[in-house]
Design a protein that fits this description.
This protein has 238 residues and is an alpha+beta fold. It contains 9 helices and 7 strands. Bound molecules: zinc ion (ZN).
């Protein structure tokens, strides 16, 4: 294993970290940044490295199929599976880890709006960190703007939500991440979220049929003002 002859040749002057994932990981460690499944690491991926990551994941995915004793050479259905799964992970279902936050134009609250605003239901597509199996659900976002708040267009809420959810997630952490982000960007009086989702990992594995989970999170005025909280939850239920 440690025979130097079997190690990949490294040209003189090449960086000490050979694979793309090693380079990205090293930058994250140097910056002291966390890289859990539901963290965004886009700013640590440089140049063509996403492509290199895709090639790396394809190779590992192929090894996984081989370990599962699937004959990907004869089985035309699985011949391109490794590459397809790699692309799906990096560019689709987990893109919220590898892509930067979508551009969101905020504009000042010129009309001094201070009424409860509710956006939803927004379709949520995610996957559980434990099994990488889909979580599909619906999300409602309540915002109580202040006169100093930033406002964003309605469609932007689903883009921000999609960015946070397109990662391996834990439902409780996902709503927290989203609430933090909305608070930081909008600076509202309060933010409220309700996420209802089906977890396919228990259903698919046949562990139990109970797969529905609802999470809510209340911040700012939604915590201190029961009237406002009631109004939000009432409107979400209807
Ligand atoms: Zn799971």
């Amino acid at each position: 294993m440690n025979d130097p002859k079997t190690r990949p040749m490294r040209p003189a002057g090449a960086p000490a970290f050979v694979t793309a994932s090693e380079r990205v990981r090293e930058r994250l460690r140097a910056a002291g940044r966390r890289f859990h499944a539901n963290d965004n690491i886009a700013e640590f991926i440089q140049g063509d490295e996403l492509k290199a990551l895709e090639a790396e994941v394809t190779e590992k995915m192929q090894a996984l199929l081989e370990a599962l004793v699937i004959d990907t050479e004869s089985d035309h259905n699985t011949r391109g599976t490794a590459g397809r799964v790699a692309r799906m992970f990096l560019r689709e279902v987990f893109k919220g880890r590898y892509q930067r936050i979508p551009a969101i134009t905020v504009f000042p609250n010129a009309e001094k709006l201070n009424e409860l605003m509710i956006v939803g239901p927004i379709t949520v597509r995610s996957a559980c960190s434990h099994h990488l199996v889909p979580i599909l659900g619906k999300l409602w976002i309540g915002v109580l703007p202040s006169e100093q708040s930033n406002l964003v267009g309605l469609s932007k809420y689903s883009r921000i939500a999609d960015w946070v959810m397109s990662r391996p997630q834990i439902q409780e952490e996902a709503v927290m991440q989203l609430a933090d982000l909305l608070e930081a960007r909008l600076k509202p009086e309060g933010v409220a979220l309700v996420l209802e989702a089906d977890h396919y990992c228990t259903q698919w594995r046949g562990v139990k049929d109970e797969t529905h989970m609802t999470n809510s999170i209340m911040r700012g005025a939604f915590l201190t003002n029961p009237e406002l909280r009631r109004e939000f939850l009432q409107l979400v239920r209807d």
